[in-house]
Amino acid sequence: MLIDGFGRKHTYLRISLTERCNLRCQYCMPAEGVDLTPSPKLLTHNEILRLANLFVTSGVDKIRLTGGEPTVRKDIHDICSNLSSLKGLKTLAVTTNGITLAKKLPMLKQCGLTNLNISLDTLVPSKFEFMTRRKGHHKVIESINAAIDVGYNPVKVNCVVMRGFNDDEICDFVNLTVDKPINVRFIEFMPFDGNVWNVKKLIPYSEMLDTVAKKFPTLKRLCDHPTETAKNFQIDGHVGTVSFVTSMTEHFCAGCNRLRLLADGNLKVCLFGPSE
Q: Which residues are in the Radical SAM core domain (predicted)?
């Protein structure tokens, strides 16, 4: 069992498969871009599997594949197939922007991918293009529907809420849960050096919750797991659910069970921590 100096048991490993991405989201990447690690210094397929096996034998039972954008990695199907066969691993998840996901989903599910998070910050194509500096809104919607069609339940949709950009769409996102097994996850905007720590864009959980509760008065809190990073809610009559990830206003550091393996092989215990 992996236990840190604060007594936290680490059972959840996030593996960055690549630093590359096919979008250029403004809150994620600075306008001038970023310098990528040279390919020879990135983890190979075999190195990923070897390290993952070490973590699983040490008590990790959940692995999430991230990036960059994990689906741009050509061997993602093989990686999923090999990871899902690790004895003791209960959950294999991926967080993706959904641009190239739809056509890969059937094989990914067959290869053992159990959970899925798709990032989508707006339901308006023109705003999507502005924020991501790329086209492709329809491809993300297609991927969400494809995920439902192949049986993922719930399909988690991650939405970073930003004042003046998509705060007027909060209830529109909630409407996605009316008749579909979607868990909409509203995430507080997390300022960092790359987006100039623009705290003015931050909309706190309390404000988002108030917006949803006024429109949907039957909103009810669900029970949360101690290591859960989201506060989960259900609206009477809705198939799906709504969650809030309170990264900034109500941090969940005390119950954090995550480790992060970067694409270059470095390990981080905190997203904001400087040490590797």
A: 5-236
